[in-house]
Amino acid sequence: MSRADLAGTIAKLEAFSDSRAKRVVSLIEDSMELEALENTADSKAARDALGESEGPLPWEQVKAKLAAQFDLTQPTSSEISGQPAGRKAVWPIAGCD
Predict the structure, then answer these.
(1) DSSP string, 37-97
(2) Which class for 4: exposed (0-12), middle (13-18), buried (19 or more C-beta within 10 A)?
(3) Which residues of 30-67 are buried (b: 16+ CB within 10 A; e: fewer)?
(4) Torsion over CA: 30, 36, 38, 40 (sign)
(5) 22: Cα within 13 Å, side-chain hemisphere
(6) Using H for helix, E for strand and C for coil, what is the string for 2-31?
(7) pLDDT tens figures, 39-94
(8) DSSP designation for 1
(9) Is the pLDDT of residue 9 over 60?
(10) pTM of the prediction?
């Protein structure tokens, strides 16, 4: 909620008693502070994760890791031409070899 939205909400709260309006405003402000804290924590976590990154991986390394993780094999030329594969799975994306 922006400060302008908050001002509009405060104007709508004029019908409430002062004590009730103050409690509602306090809850809204607390919510805004909590959101800011969460955003800060998310930003820090993202920066930390990027700092741990080893940089971009070569495509061959990514393919090998996925093949091992999901028990995939690359299609042979006969599999690409439509003949029976005889294998558990093939790469799901044509042309990614």
Answers:
(1) HHHHHHHHHHHHHHHH---PPPHHHHHHHHHHHHT-BPPPHHHHTTS---SS-B-SSTT--
(2) exposed
(3) eeeeeeeeeeeeeeeeeeeeeeeeeeeeeeeeebeeee
(4) negative
(5) 3
(6) CHHHHHHHHHHHHHCCHHHHHHHHHHHHHH
(7) 999 999 988 887 776 778 889 988 888 888 888 776 666 666 665 555 555 555 55
(8) -
(9) yes
(10) 0.40
CB distance 13 to 24 below 8 Å = yes
| 80 contacts 94 by C-beta, under 8 angstroms | yes
Give the start-to-end residue ranges of the domains of the chain. Answer: 3-52, 56-97
pLDDT of res. 11: 80
CA distance 41 to 27: 21
Write down the pLDDT at residue 25.
82
